[in-house]
C-alpha cells in the first residue's frame, strides 16, 4: 500500500508543466480544441495522447480515494434506506385500506357529482346555442335589410350594413356554413352595387352629354347679353362725353349691374355622380371610379371634338362649340363640388387637348372659307366661347390667337367682297347728279357721311353735286369699317384702331381708288362721266374724314384724338392724286372734242381772197361746247377743278391755233386768213372773260384769267397783223408785246405768211403805202429771224 502511494507520489512529482496545463483545462471544463490542434500542428499527437492518459489515471486515483473516504457513511445510508423501505410498506397497506373504505362511502356521492357536471354541461351548451342563435339572427336581419336596400336602390345603407357585418359580426358567426355563405356573398353584393352604380353613372354621362349643348348655348347667351349691355353703357358714356366735351361739367355714370348666378341659371344635376363617387369611397375603390369617370369624359370630349361630318361647318359651328363649352362648364362644377373626383391637373390636360383640337379645326376651316360673313360669324361665336370659359378659369388665349392669326384672311375676303360691290356700284352708276326729293334722302345720303357743303338744310328737290355712287360707296366703306371693328373687337389686340385704319387705307387705295382709276382709264367714258367721276372723287376724299371718325368711334377712340392732323388717312392723298388724274382725263376729253371742232387745217381757207366779215363757222360750235362744259363743271366741280378745266381748255385752244400755223399741211396763208382767226380769237376772248367773271373765279384767281391762256395765239395774231412786225426783234417791245412767242415758231410761221390774196391777179393789184410798209417790215423780220437762227 505504501509502495503504491509512493509510486503515485513520484508520478505526481514527475508531472511536467504541460500535464498541469492540460489537467487544469480539463478541471475547469475548458475547450481542449486549441490544445489538440496545436499538438497536431507541431506533429506531437503521441505526446498529447500520453498526457491525456496520465490525466485519466490521476483522476481514477482521486475517485478511488474519494470512495474510500466515504465508504462507511455509504453503508450507514443503505441501512437507513432499508428501514425506510419497511415503513413505506406499512404505510402503503394503511393507505390501501383507507382508500377502499373511502370508495365504499363516496360511490353514491360521486354519481351525484357526475349528474351535476352533466347538467352544467347541458346548461353551457344551451346557453352557447342561444348566444349563437341570437348572433345568427342579427346577421340574418342585417342581410335582410341589405336585400331590401338593394331592391330599393338604397346602396349606401346597404354598404353601411355590409360594413357593420364585416366589422362586428363576420368573425364571430358561430355557424361556419353561414359564415362561409356570407363571406361568399359579400363580394358578390359589392360587385352588384358597383355595377348598378356604374349603370346609373353611364345613364348620367349620356344625359349630361345630351344636355351639354343646351348648357353651353345658355351660358354663351348670357355672355353675349352681358357684352351687349356693356357696349350699350359704353356707347352712352361716349355720347355723353362728346356732347359735353366743350364744357366743364363733371360726369356721373350709373352702371346697372345684373348679377347672374350661373349655378342657378344652369340646371343640371350632379347628384348621381356625387352618390356614385361616395359609394365607391365606401367600397374603398375611389381611385378606380376617378379613373373610370375621367376616361369616359375624355372619350366623350374626343367624340365631341370630331364634330359632325353630315353638316357644313358654317351650319354646325354653334352646336360644335356650345357642346364643348357645356362639357367644360360641367367639369368645372365637378371639380369644385365633387370632393376630389376630378383634380385640376386632369381638367387642365382635358382643356389643353380640347384647345389644341379647336385651334386646329379653326385654322383648317378658316383656310377654306370664301365668305367674310361666315368667318366673322364663326369668329364672334368663338370669341364668346373664349370669354365664357375664361369666367370659369380656363386659359382661352390660344383661341384668341387663332382668331387674330386669321384677321389677314378675313380682311382679304372682306376686301374681295367690297371690290365686287364697288365694281357693281360703278357699273350701275349713271354718272348723273343725284336728286333728293325729301329730307330723309338728304339725311341718308349726305348728312350720314358729312358730305354736305353747307350747314343749312337745302330746299327740295335737292340736286347733289355727286352721283349715286358716292353714298353707295360710302355705305360700303362704312360697312367694311363695322365688319373690321367687329372682327378685331374682343381679341388680343390692344390697339385695334390702328389695324382698322391700316385695312381702311387698303380698301380705299387698293379697291376704291383702283376701281375709279380703271374706270377713268378704260376709255369708255365721256366728258360728263369724267367730270362726274372727278366730282365724286372730291367728295370721297372729303368722306375720308368721316371714315376715320367712324372707325375711331367704333373703336372707342376719343373724338379729340381723331381731330389731330396725323389722324388723316393716306388714302386721302391718293384720292387727291386720282382726282387730279380724273381732271386730266376730263381735260383730255374736252381737248379731244375741241380738236374735232377746231380742225383748222380743214375748216379754214388759209388763202382766202376776201377779207372775212366775222369769225369762222367752227368757232360757234367751240363756244357752245365750252359753255356747256363750264356750266356743267360749275354745278358739279369745286372751283379749283373748274378753274383747271377752263385753263386747260383755253390753253389747248391757243396751242391748237399756233400749231395750225406750224402744221406741215399749211404751206402758206395770207392776211385775210389771219384776220378771220383774229375774229375767232376775239369771240373766244370775250367768252373767256364772261365765263371767268360769271363763275366767280375772278375773285379767287387774279394772277391768270381764262383770257390769259390765249396769250400765245393772241400775240401771234397781233404780230402777223402788226404794221411793224420787225419790232419783234426789239427786246423791249418783244418782252412787252410778244413774250409768249418763240423765235423758231415765229420764223417758221412768218416764212409761210404771204401778205396778198392768192389769185391770178393778185400780183397786179394795187397796194397802198401801208400794206407795202407792212410787207417790207415782214420781209425784214423774216430776214432777221433767218439771220438769228
Automatic annotation (TrEMBL):
Chain ranges passing through the membrane: none
Subcellular location: Cytoplasm, Cytosol
Predominant location category: cytoplasm
The keyword Coiled coil belongs to this UniProt entry's keyword annotation: yes
Domain annotation Exocyst complex component EXOC6/Sec15 N-terminal: ranges: 51-219
Pfam families cross-referenced by the UniProt entry: EXOC6_Sec15_N, Sec15_C
Name by which UniProt lists this protein: Exocyst complex component
UniProt domain Exocyst complex subunit EXOC6/Sec15 C-terminal: residue ranges: 398-752
Top-rank lineage group of the source organism: Eukaryota
Lineage, broadest ranks: Eukaryota, Viridiplantae, Streptophyta, Embryophyta, Tracheophyta
Functional description taken from the UniProt entry: Component of the exocyst complex involved in the docking of exocytic vesicles with fusion sites on the plasma membrane during regulated or polarized secretion. Involved in polarized cell growth and organ morphogenesis. During cytokinesis, involved in cell plate initiation, cell plate maturation and formation of new primary cell wall.
Keywords annotated in UniProt: Coiled coil, Cytoplasm, Exocytosis, Transport
Presence of keyword Transmembrane: no
GO biological process: acceptance of pollen; Golgi to plasma membrane transport; intracellular protein transport; pollen germination; pollen tube growth; vesicle tethering involved in exocytosis
Amino acid at each position: 500500500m505504501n509502495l503504491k502511494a509512493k509510486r503515485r507520489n513520484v508520478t505526481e512529482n514527475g508531472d511536467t508543466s504541460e500535464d498541469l496545463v492540460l489537467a487544469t483545462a480539463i478541471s475547469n471544463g475548458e475547450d481542449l480544441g486549441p490544445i489538440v490542434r496545436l499538438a497536431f500542428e507541431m506533429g506531437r499527437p503521441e505526446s498529447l495522447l500520453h498526457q491525456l492518459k496520465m490525466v485519466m489515471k490521476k483522476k481514477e486515483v482521486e475517485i478511488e480515494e474519494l470512495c474510500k473516504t466515504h465508504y462507511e457513511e455509504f453503508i450507514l445510508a443503505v441501512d437507513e434506506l432499508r428501514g425506510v423501505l419497511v415503513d413505506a410498506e406499512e404505510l402503503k397497506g394503511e393507505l390501501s385500506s383507507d382508500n377502499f373504505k373511502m370508495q365504499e362511502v363516496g360511490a353514491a356521492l360521486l354519481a351525484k357529482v357526475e349528474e351535476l357536471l352533466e347538467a352544467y354541461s347541458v346548461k353551457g351548451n344551451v346557453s352557447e346555442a342561444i348566444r349563437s342563435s341570437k348572433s345568427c339572427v342579427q346577421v340574418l336581419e342585417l342581410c335582410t335589410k341589405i336585400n331590401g336596400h338593394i331592391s330599393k336602390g338604397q346602396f349606401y345603407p346597404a354598404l353601411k350594413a355590409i360594413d357593420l357585418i364585416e366589422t362586428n359580426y363576420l368573425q364571430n358567426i358561430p355557424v361556419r356554413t353561414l359564415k362561409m355563405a356570407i363571406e361568399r356573398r359579400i363580394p358578390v353584393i359589392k360587385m352588384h352595387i358597383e355595377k348598378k352604380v356604374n349603370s346609373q353613372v353611364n345613364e348620367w354621362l349620356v344625359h349630361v352629354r345630351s344636355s351639354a349643348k343646351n348648357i353651353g348655348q345658355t351660358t354663351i347667351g348670357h355672355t353675349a347679353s352681358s357684352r351687349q349691355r356693356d357696349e350699350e353703357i359704353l356707347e352712352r358714356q361716349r355720347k355723353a362725353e362728346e356732347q359735353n366735351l366743350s364744357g366743364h361739367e363733371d360726369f356721373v355714370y350709373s352702371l346697372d349691374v345684373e348679377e347672374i348666378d350661373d349655378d342657378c341659371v344652369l340646371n343640371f344635376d350632379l347628384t348621381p355622380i356625387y352618390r356614385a363617387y361616395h359609394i365607391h369611397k365606401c367600397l374603398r375603390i375611389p381611385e378606380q371610379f376617378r379613373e373610370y369617370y375621367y376616361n369616359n369624359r375624355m372619350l366623350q370630349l374626343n367624340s365631341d371634338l370630331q364634330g359632325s361630318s353630315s353638316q357644313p361647318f358654317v351650319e354646325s359651328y354653334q352646336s360644335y362649340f356650345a357642346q364643348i363649352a357645356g362639357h367644360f362648364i360641367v367639369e368645372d362644377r365637378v371639380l369644385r363640388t365633387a370632393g376630389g373626383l376630378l383634380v385640376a391637373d386632369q381638367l387642365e390636360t382635358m382643356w389643353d387637348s380640347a384647345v389644341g383640337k379647336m385651334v386646329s379645326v379653326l385654322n383648317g376651316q378658316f383656310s377654306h372659307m370664301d365668305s367674310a360673313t361666315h368667318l366673322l360669324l364663326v369668329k364672334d361665336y368663338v370669341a364668346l366661347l373664349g370669354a365664357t370659359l375664361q369666367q370659369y378659369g380656363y386659359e382661352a388665349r390660344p383661341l384668341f390667337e387663332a382668331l387674330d392669326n386669321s384677321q389677314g384672311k378675313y380682311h382679304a375676303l372682306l376686301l374681295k367682297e367690297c371690290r365686287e360691290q364697288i365694281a357693281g356700284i360703278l357699273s350701275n352708276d349713271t354718272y348723273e347728279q343725284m336728286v333728293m326729293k325729301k329730307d330723309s334722302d338728304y339725311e341718308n345720303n349726305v348728312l350720314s357721311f358729312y358730305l354736305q357743303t353747307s350747314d343749312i338744310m337745302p330746299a327740295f328737290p335737292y340736286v347733289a353735286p355727286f352721283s349715286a355712287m358716292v353714298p353707295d360707296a360710302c355705305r360700303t366703306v362704312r360697312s367694311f369699317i363695322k365688319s373690321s371693328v367687329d372682327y378685331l373687337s374682343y381679341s388680343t389686340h390692344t390697339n385695334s384702331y390702328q389695324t382698322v385704319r391700316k385695312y381702311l387705307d387698303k380698301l380705299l387705295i387698293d379697291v376704291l381708288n383702283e376701281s375709279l382709276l380703271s374706270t377713268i382709264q378704260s376709255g369708255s367714258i365721256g366728258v360728263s362721266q369724267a367730270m362726274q367721276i372727278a366730282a365724286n372723287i372730291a367728295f370721297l376724299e372729303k368722306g375720308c374724314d368721316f371714315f376715320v371718325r367712324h372707325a375711331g368711334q367704333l373703336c372707342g377712340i376719343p373724338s379729340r384724338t381723331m381731330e389731330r392732323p396725323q389722324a388723316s388717312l393716306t388714302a386721302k392723298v391718293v384720292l387727291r392724286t386720282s382726282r387730279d388724274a380724273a381732271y386730266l382725263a376730263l381735260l383730255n376729253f374736252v381737248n379731244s372734242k375741241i380738236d374735232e371742232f377746231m380742225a383748222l387745217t380743214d375748216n379754214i381757207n388759209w388763202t382766202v381772197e376776201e377779207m372775212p366779215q366775222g369769225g369762222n363757222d367752227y368757232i360757234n360750235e367751240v363756244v357752245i361746247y365750252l359753255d356747256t362744259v363750264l356750266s356743267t363743271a360749275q354745278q358739279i366741280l369745286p372751283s379749283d377743278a373748274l378753274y383747271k378745266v377752263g385753263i386747260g381748255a383755253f390753253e389747248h385752244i391757243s396751242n391748237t391755233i399756233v400749231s395750225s400755223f406750224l402744221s406741215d399741211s399749211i404751206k402758206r396763208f395770207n392776211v385775210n386768213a389771219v384776220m378771220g382767226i383774229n375774229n375767232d380769237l376775239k369771240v373766244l376772248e370775250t367768252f373767256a372773260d364772261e365765263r371767268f367773271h360769271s363763275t366767280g373765279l375772278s375773285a379767287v384767281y387774279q394772277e391768270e384769267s381764262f383770257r390769259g391762256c390765249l396769250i400765245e395765239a393772241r400775240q401771234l395774231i397781233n404780230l402777223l397783223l402788226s404794221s411793224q412786225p420787225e419790232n419783234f426783234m426789239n427786246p423791249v417791245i418783244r418782252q412787252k408785246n410778244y413774250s409768249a412767242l418763240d423765235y423758231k415758231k415765229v420764223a417758221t410761221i412768218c416764212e409761210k405768211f404771204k401778205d396778198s390774196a392768192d389769185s391770178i391777179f393778185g400780183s397786179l393789184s394795187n397796194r397802198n403805202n401801208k400794206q407795202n410798209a407792212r410787207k417790207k417790215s415782214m420781209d425784214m423780220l423774216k430776214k432777221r429771224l433767218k439771220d438769228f437762227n
